[in-house]
Amino acid sequence: MADSFDLVVIGSGPGGYVAAIRAAQLGMSVACVEKRASLGGTCLNIGCIPSKALLHSSEKFHDAKHSFAEHGIKVSGVELDLPAMMARKDKVVDTLTKGIAFLFKKNKIEWVAGTATIPAVGQVKVADAKGAARTLTAKRILIATGSESMPLPGVEVEEKRIVTSTGALALGTVPGHLVVIGAGYIGLEMGSVWARLGAKVTVVEYLDRITPGMDGEIAKQFQRVLQKQGFTFRLGAKVTSAKAGAKGVAVTVEPAAGGAAETLEADVVLLSIGRRPNTEGLGLEKLGVALDKRGFVQTDGEFQTNVSGIYAIGDVRPGPMLAHKAEDEGTVAVERMAGVKGHVDYDLIPGVVYTWPEVASVGKTEEQLKDAKTEYKVGKFPFMANSRAKATGETDGLVKILADAKTDRVLGVHIMGPDAGTVIHECTLAMEFGGAAEDIARSCHAHPTYNEAVKEAALAVDGRPIHI
Description:
By secondary structure, the chain is an alpha/beta fold. It folds into 3 domains: 215 residues, FAD/NAD(P)-binding domain; 112 residues, FAD/NAD(P)-binding domain; 113 residues, Enolase-like, domain 1 (2-Layer Sandwich), CATH 3.30.390. Helix content is 32%, strand content 25%. The protein contains 14 helices and 22 strands. Strands 1, 2, 3, 4, 5, 6 and 17 form a 7-stranded mixed beta sheet that branches. It has a 5-stranded parallel beta sheet with strand order 8-15-9-10-11. Strand 13 and strand 14 form a beta hairpin. The termini are far apart.
């Protein structure tokens, strides 16, 4: 095998593998270094994909127990086969990771298994599981090593009873009581899985609201829906310790503003307070690669660090830690290397919470527009008045469109409702091309579809919705 490449990518997650494939399409010789036994990074192995598989399976189980009857479907003796559910999740992951391996072969990308360090500019040293080392030389090195779960003092993770999302995806039994530390996307998704399967779920959040960064109105309605589903929220509270004992985990909780502590008894504790860039051990400090105070790699507009020939994308860079952000950065980074124009619009990266109903957003929140003193108009439409939602019985939520008061240009869209993660994309596309609320309102939407709620919200921006 050759040891010299035009590009060596470190990390095979969504950013890394997409960058490798695009670079190969552009004629570069490419190697991709991955320390896991399978390709795909956190997202495919222990993140996005397995969590969505379990979310879908748990929805079906919940529907069979609680919703089928209203559709005229009688079932009895519904039982949970957790090993089978986990096996299906693992099969989905295995299929997709093998699919990336196939794409690497198709595009003549060399997969180099092992842990990478960068001893010098233009060199990547790879140590395999047996300790054997191989040094690759590269015209360019692209760091795409992703992120890891943020630790919390006093909470020692062992991935059995005190877990991160990794352990929460592989529990052997349904916990009687699951305490989730952090009311962000990941914690609420995993909480949803286990709540549907029978767990009592308590979410402890330091702030006085859930889903920080989400439009405030949507977040409040989202919290109410989750409470109807059985969630208990302890907002404005902090966890100071979690101790595993013979009968469970003792979780010490105090008011964030100060006050008396109390103890919650849990079977499992999920630590989900965010993620941090995964750059330790690469040797970046010795090379002089600039990092910010939080450990994120600093790059220029070409995704190049201050050290010539070393680039970075995805979760190791500042910005939303999302797989699709990493994919876009990976594509654009290698296109820039090849002299091809490309860009990433960081104002138009959609975010989705895959609970049910889903919550999706793109662009500015109402709070951000107020802080910027931007004059705006609001159009809202509830799914309760949407024909398709009525037909399917999925009427929780709404579409909220924020548009410039003078130009009508769409500045932000926030959706809580069925398939919100799919519905949001017509709004993202409209915003990418500078579309106005009137443009969405004048576009013909098929009937009956959930997307008609988007059209109605766009009409509501001008005060003329039809169905409310």
